[in-house]
Design a protein that fits this description.
This protein is of the alpha+beta class and 385 residues long. It folds into 2 domains: 206 residues, Hypothetical protein af1432, CATH 1.10.3210; 140 residues, Growth Hormone, Chain: A, CATH 1.20.1250.30. The protein is built from 19 helices and 7 strands. The chain has a 4-stranded mixed β-sheet with strand order 1-2-5-6. It has a 3-stranded antiparallel β-sheet with strand order 3-7-4, with helices on both faces. A hairpin with a 5-residue loop joins strand 5 and strand 6. Helix 11 packs across helix 12 and helix 15 crosses helix 16. The longest helix has 22 residues.
Amino acid sequence: MEHPWFQRLRRIRQLGLTEYVYPSATHTRFQHALGCLFLMKQAIILLRGKGVEITRGEEQGAWLAILLHDIGHGPYSHTLERSIVTGITHEEISLLFMERLNNQFNGALDVAIRIFTDTYPKQFLHQLVASQLDMDRLDYLSRDSFFTGVAEGVINTDRIINMLTVVDDELVVEEKGIYSIEKFILARRLMYWQVYLHKTVLAADVMLSNILRRSKILGEQGVELFATPPLKRFLQDPVKGREMLCREECLETFSQLDDFDIFAALKVWSAHPDSILSFLSHRLVNRHLFRAELRNKPFDPVYVASIREAAARTFGITEEETEYIVTEEAVSNNAYNPDHDRINIRTREGELLDVSEASEQLNISILSTRTQKYLLSYPKELMPR
C-alpha cells in the first residue's frame, strides 16, 4: 500500500468529471480500493464461519487481488482509454502492474494474480474480485451514492455479504437475501442513468476525450504543447496500447500520470494557438459545457449535419474540425447480464436459481436487457431555434 504505484490512486478521482454535476463527488480510487479490501475481509470471515475452507495464503491472495484490481486506472480512465492510451484496458494494465510488483516482492502476489486472472482452482475467490456481485461493485455503488447524494444507489452491503455462501465452488446467495439483491440490481440501473451516464457528465467526458484526441494528433505532428514529462511521452509516442505499456519504461511513465497532469495541461492549452484545442480546453476548465441531447433513437443525419454546418459557420472551422465540436455517440446500460455470469440464489430446498427466475418483486428480465441511448453534444450557441 505504501508503494508509489498504489499511492498514485490518491490523485485519481473515482468519478472523473462527475463533480461538474455532483460537486461533492471528489472521492478517489485510493478510497475505493481500501473500501473493497474492507469488504473482502468481511466476506472471507463470513464464508469461513459457514464452513468454507479458505487458507491463510488464499485469504492474502484475495486481499491483494481486490486491493490492486484498479491500480491500472489512469486519470479520467475511460476517457483516456479512447484517446491517448488506446488498445489496452485498465484491467490489462492492472495485471501488468501486479506482475511487476510480484517481481519486486519476490513472488508474494503469485496467488493474487491467479485469483485475479481466474486461473486459481477455487473460482469463488475470483468471483469475490470480479463478477456481477463482487466487492468492487458493492463498494462503488455505496461510495458513489454517498458522495453524489443520489439516494437511489444506496444498498445494504452488510446484508448482501451476510447472505453469501459457496456451493460447488460457486458464490451464491441464500434465498432470504433475494430482496437485497433485487435492490442491488435496481440501484445499479438507476445509478447508471442518474450518475455514470448523466447527460451532462457525458458531455463533459466527450469534451475531454476530444481535447486529448486533438492534443495527441498535434503531439505526433511535433506541435509544441505544454505537458508534464509523463503526459508528453504519451502525446508524442506513436506506439499504442499493449506494445507501449509492455515496455518497462513506458509502464513506469504511465505510473506517474494522474489527474493533475491532465488538468494542468488543460489550463495552459486554454491559450494555445490551435483554435480547436484552446476552444475546448477553455470551456472545460471554466465549466462552459456543451449542450447534451439524449434520445432513444439515432439522431436524424440531416439534423446532425445542420448543426455541423452551423458550427463551421459560427466558429470559422473546417468540416473535418467540426467532429471535435459536434459529437454523436451511443451509450448503453446493462444492470444485470446473465449471459456474462449469473447471480444464483440457493432456495431453501437447495436448488440454485438465477435471480431473474427466483425474483418475485421485480421483473429482472427487463432490468437485464441492455438499454441503448444516443448522445449528441455541441456548443449551446448552436442550439436549433
